[in-house]
Amino acid sequence: METFAEEKQSVTNLPQTKLEEFEDVKEEAVMTTLRSALDFYSTIQADDGHWPGDYGGPMFLLPGLNRDGGWGLHIEGPSTMFGTVLNYVSLKLLGECAEGGERAIEKAHKWILEHDSFQKFVNK
């Protein structure tokens, strides 16, 4: 798998486009900026067409698990149904088992059942 450390060389050497606060944007400036952006993204695109990343899977999600078994909207936030269900489903899709990862799936499942608004939503 190709990583960001193995970036391809840039194909073009386009100048940086800078505009003053009230300057009119000209088509040439837009085209130069677009070409530069496309050139940049082509350097980090893998040969098979995807853009590799450093996503750590379950190890990225687990630190946000609260003591009550849920997840908040951010890493220090109180547990919410949205955050908990989003992380629960993500862990399931990533193949995490109930006993793995600090028993996060088991704890999240319990939290969801105790705060049954998700169950009510699904059953409608």
UniProtKB/TrEMBL annotation:
Which PANTHER family does its entry note? TERPENE CYCLASE/MUTASE FAMILY MEMBER, TERPENE CYCLASE_MUTASE FAMILY MEMBER
Q: Which Gene3D superfamilies match?
A: 1.50.10.20
Specify the protein name: Squalene cyclase N-terminal domain-containing protein
Domain Squalene cyclase N-terminal per the UniProt entry, residue ranges: 66-119
Instruction: Pull one GO CC term from this UniProt entry.
Output: lipid droplet
Cite a single Pfam family from the UniProt record. Answer: SQHop_cyclase_N
What processes does the entry annotate via GO biological process terms?
A: triterpenoid biosynthetic process
Give the source species: Gossypium mustelinum (Cotton)
The entry lists its GO molecular-function terms as: intramolecular transferase activity
